[in-house]
Design brief:
Length: about 300
């Protein structure tokens, strides 16, 4: 049976854009994108009809309004309508534009010609319904951390074995595959990408093809760390894991099975107020938090084995 989606359109002030994204993410929305509309931000998101009733949408609208009141921002508006599967991707595509991230990346929607006169590394993406367009702070922090890992040795890592030798990487919660592809384009030798969501797995496979990456360099499978463990010949050199804090804390103990003494890891998807709890779990499991990078209310922990 054809799937139907709620198309949500939120018109809000820039101060609450991030909390709107956060609420949408928590509600299971996919394909979230935003664009400027005068002084306001228009945020578009999609939710499978089966996952939300009208009352849920009304509750979501109330949350947006409460957030705005807390932040003393103008009240946002939320409109919704039902659309068919065929319409949702074409509708969403109009709202997503190329975006520069960090010093080196340009995320280019696959249906827009990529610029030729750029020195940036171009990641071509059609995330479909998977998370990972690069619009979210948590993804940006990971891409920037990967840039750092693959750049010349920053002072703080002099003497360590981290950086370019870190060639085999695990991407846990790959979504659209944006981080896997970013790591490979920066010079990683091989990435093992996993996601519990089959739609994300399909999206990563599709984006692997769009970017002309050889199948053997990007292995994609449905599942989580246990799947990587089965596929691995030897421990990984690096891990990227952009999932919510609660899930990260659950997964950390089983990561020990895929690492070696020099493995580094980038953990993102963590709200600032959750960073202490995550750090505690990491330290108990043999990780040392080297740096905490923050953007808006999110943070990303750059770690290595202690
Ligand atoms: C926030 S998205 C990150 C997507 C992409 N890596 C990025 O950085 O934009 C988190 C992804 O983790 C997946 N996920 C959630 N729990 C997971 C688990 N236990 N193991 C593997 N993947 C998981 C979700 O399906 C989702 O695609």
């Amino acid at each position: 049976m054809a799937k139907t989606w709620w198309e949500l359109q939120i018109l809000c002030s820039p101060e609450i854009e991030d909390s709107v994204f956060w609420r949408l993410e928590e509600s299971g929305c996919r394909g979230t994108a935003s664009q400027k509309k005068g002084n306001l931000i228009s945020v578009q998101a999609y939710l499978p009809e089966s996952q939300a009733h009208l009352l849920d949408l009304a509750a979501l609208s109330l949350c947006f309004r409460q957030d705005a009141v807390c932040l003393e921002a103008p009240l946002p508006s939320l409109q919704w309508k039902l659309i068919d599967e065929e319409d949702w991707s074409s509708s969403w595509k109009q709202h997503w534009q190329p975006q520069e991230i960090g010093d080196r990346f340009l995320i280019n929607p696959s249906w827009i010609p990529a610029p030729e006169n750029t020195e940036r590394i171009i990641i071509k993406l059609d995330p479909g319904v998977a998370f990972g367009t690069g619009a979210h702070a948590t993804t940006q922090l990971c891409l920037e951390s990967l840039e750092m890992r693959f750049s010349d040795i920053p002072q703080s890592f002099v003497g360590s074995e981290e950086r370019k030798e870190a060639a085999v990487i695990a991407d846990i919660g790959c979504g659209s595959g944006i981080l896997s592809i970013g790591a490979l384009l920066l010079g990683a030798k091989k990435v093992y990408a996993v996601d519990v969501d089959s739609l994300a797995v399909n999206s990563t496979i599709e984006n692997r093809e769009i970017n002309g990456i050889a199948t053997e360099r990007l292995s994609v499978a449905q599942g989580s760390i246990e799947v990587i463990q089965q596929l691995l010949v030897e421990p990984v050199d690096g891990i990227v894991c952009n999932i919510l804090a609660d899930i990260i804390m659950e997964l950390v103990p089983s990561m020990s099975a895929i690492v070696k003494p020099t493995t580094w890891a980038i953990f993102s998807g963590i709200l600032l107020e959750q960073s202490n709890a995550v750090t505690e779990v990491l330290e108990k499991n043999g990780w040392l938090v080297a740096t905490l990078w923050k953007r808006k209310e999110w943070c990303c922990l750059n770690t290595r084995r202690s």
